[in-house]
Model the fold of this input.
Amino acid sequence: MTSLRLANLWLHLFAASIWIGVSAFLTMLWLPQVRKGIDPVSWEELLLRLGRRYIRWAWLAVHILVLTGIFNLLSVGIDTGFAFPPAFLRRLIAKLVIVLLMVALQVGLSVIWLPRLARGPSGGVAEKAIRRALLATSIAGALALWFALMLRS
Ligand code: HEM
Done:
């Protein structure tokens, strides 16, 4: 594998680990613990600040994944004379469908659930939606990782 391709695959995996890892960390560790010791209004303010920061990094990871993914696809295409093995295509399509779902969750966070939280106390409604979106992103990311590792087998 050329060093350029290796560097691209590294950036691809790093971006994926940030997007999936941070979602999983927030869902499994940070949100449940911090929420306990804080009053509801301060909690929603903190969640909003955190959510806005998370979404900025998540969208950066999405852009890097798509650009490095296209480079990956071109590299595999050059290797195979663009006669992609059917199993590779099936698994890549499955992975991309899952990535589309993950992107839809990011859109929901960006244009629905975080703005809802910004409009003031929501009685936990916006918070529940944000936690569910982060949990779903983590689970979908784990599934995308599985299909990704199956690409070569
Ligand atoms: C959450 C999103 C994603 C995750 C977790 C992910 C993960 C991975 C992993 C772990 C590999 C390495 C497989 C290996 O070398 O055995 C890989 C390869 C690949 N990814 Fe992704 N990826 C994601 C998004 C994307 C996107 C959006 C695209 C296309 C636009 C893409 C296209 C590819 C291609 C074509 C390869 C094969 C590279 C090769 O065999 O050299 N991936 N991905």
User: Anything to note?
Assistant: Residues 9, 12-13, 16, 19, 65-66, 69-70, 72-73, 75-76, 92, 99, 102, 141, 144-145, 148-149, 151-152 surround protoporphyrin IX containing FE (CB under 6 Å). Residues 27 and 125 are 16 Å apart (CA to CA).
